[in-house]
Design brief:
With 463 residues, the chain is an alpha+beta fold. It has helices at residues 4-7, 73-79, 91-99, 124-136, 142-161, 163-175, 190-193, 198-208, 227-235, 285-296, 302-310, 341-352, 364-381, 385-398, 404-412, 417-427, 441-450; strands at residues 32-35, 41-46, 52-59, 103-109, 112-120, 215-220, 258-262, 268-277, 317-323, 328-337, 434-439, 457-460. A hairpin with a 2-residue loop joins strand 4 and strand 5. Helix 4 packs parallel to helix 9.
Length: 463
């Protein structure tokens, strides 16, 4: 039992503290790049000690290549890839994959598709054969497609009932030109998804998935396995003469819009306030990233410090950049009590205007904090084979280059307060931003109009 002296905090002695050294030099791993016989680019990261190998097959199938009548067909077709193959139909395929301890997934984005495999290195050969089957010889049965259509329709209905998701969807619809695929949900809208059937899903696979423009990223400890030989055996003979490659769409901005989506009786409102933005290849990207982190990316960022800590209007508010392959968007977003929505928007607008009468340029301390955070988290983010493979796949999908992470970190370290302020003000004009609020319009519409949002629309929605 402890004595009173031991429990008395005045008698405690601080243990010797280790010295905290500056972080060491770090760079993103460099891959070995080669080409398979059919033209697929193979990108290999040999990572000793990473005994779970990660494989990402990046497929050049941008969503603007979907038939507009059945938008969402790419998502439905992708979700059926592991539901059975020609050689292993139905549940047999899933059982074989499970036997190998492997995980299979699909990622769908505007720029294309990724098929993802994670498997213990000791089971790599067997799992890779199944990985190849899922992508090149899927069954895509009518029953599986019909089931996934119903799942997707339920997801759409659920998202429309969720205030935060509805705000994000409405913001995207407003910020991008209606003709841009980026203005609509990646998984398709309800009307077009409902028209997807087995024939449409099989047609999408046959016409859009193939080796042309594809990249295969492998990361992990391969042991005695030659990754090029493995990839060649299971993907090098894949051919698809019917493959059609669709040029990547250049996203276009929509007209500025101020809108409230009415939710009667809602006790809080979800706000999105932002506009059309830039992609990661824009020379302003590093400085803009630093600026948005200072404005709304950290717990004690400018927005959070006032709207959460000082005013208590919200549990949290953020400002973020969302890049596409070309262009993108940026937004201030958060949930606020209904009775303070107008004042929250007023304060957010004042804080966001760093060049106005009440504005403040970004400081050296804010820039240093942003750079330190990004530089410090990168080695952790890419500490696993999956983290490395995922980033390398994104680099291929949106054309960033293998050295993007290392190059971007170097450019971040060169950002000055002046550069951060200039990049930010070139994007953020508070008088030209789109405002989307999901909440009780009967309470919040008039106060927002009093702030100067004279053209505010009120959209009455069900639910």
């Amino acid at each position: 039992m402890s004595t009173p002296e031991q429990l008395d905090p005045t008698t405690w002695r601080a243990a010797p503290q280790p010295e905290v050294a500056a972080p060491g030099a770090w760079s993103f791993p460099e891959p070995v790049v080669s080409t398979l016989a059919n033209g697929i680019e193979l990108v290999c990261f040999d990572l000793p000690g990473q005994h779970v190998v990660s494989a990402h097959l990046v497929l050049d199938a941008p969503l603007n290549g979907e038939d507009p009548d059945v938008e969402g067909v790419a998502t439905i077709a992708a979700r059926t890839l592991d539901e059975g193959t020609r050689n292993h139909p139905g549940e047999e395929f899933a059982e074989l994959l499970e036997t190998e301890g492997a995980g299979f997934g699909i990622e769908v984005s505007l720029s294309g598709l990724q098929a993802v495999l994670d498997v213990p290195a000791s089971h790599l050969e067997q799992a890779f054969a199944l990985f190849s089957e899922a992508v090149t010889q899927p069954e895509i049965s009518d029953a599986d497609v019909a089931r996934h259509v119903q799942i997707r329709l339920a997801q759409i209905e659920q998202s429309s009932a969720n205030s935060a998701q509805l705000a994000s969807t409405a913001f995207r619809e407003s910020v991008f030109d209606p003709a841009s695929r980026a203005s609509r949900m990646s998984g398709g809208e309800a009307a077009s998804v409902a028209r997807v059937d087995g024939a449409a899903a099989r047609h999408f696979h046959a016409e859009h998935l193939g080796p042309a423009g594809a990249s295969l990223v492998l990361a992990g400890d391969f042991g005695g396995t030659d990754p090029h030989d493995l990839a060649q055996r299971w993907f090098g003979d894949w051919a698809n003469d019917a493959q059609v490659r669709t040029p990547q769409e250049q996203a276009a901005p929509g007209a500025r819009r101020h809108v409230v989506l009415h939710r009667p009786g809602a006790v809080q409102a979800d706000v999105r306030y932002g506009g059309f933005g830039i992609d990661r290849l824009d020379p302003r990207w590093p400085a803009a990233s630093v600026a948005t982190y200072a404005m709304g990316g950290a717990f004690l960022s400018r927005l959070n410090a006032v709207l959460r800590e000082e005013k208590g209007y919200t549990y949290g508010v953020r400002m973020s950049l969302t890049p596409l392959r070309s262009a993108g968007s940026f937004a201030i977003g958060g949930s606020f009590r209904t009775d303070v929505v107008a004042d929250s928007v007023r304060l957010a607008r004042e804080l966001a205007d760093v060049s106005g009468p009440e504005g403040r340029p970004f400081t050296a301390e804010e820039v240093a904090d942003a750079v330190t955070y990004t530089s410090g988290i990168s080695p952790l983010r890419y500490a696993t084979a999956d983290g490395v493979a995922d980033q390398a796949a994104v680099n291929r999908l949106v054309g960033l280059g293998d050295d993007y992470v290392t190059r971007n970190l170097a450019e971040l370290r060169q950002v000055t307060p002046e550069a951060a302020t200039q990049a930010y003000t070139s994007l953020v004009d508070v008088d030209a931003l789109t405002l989307v609020v999901v909440g009780d319009a009967d309470v919040i519409a008039d106060p927002l109009r009093d702030l100067g949002f004279d053209d505010l629309e009120v959209v009455r929605t069900e639910g």
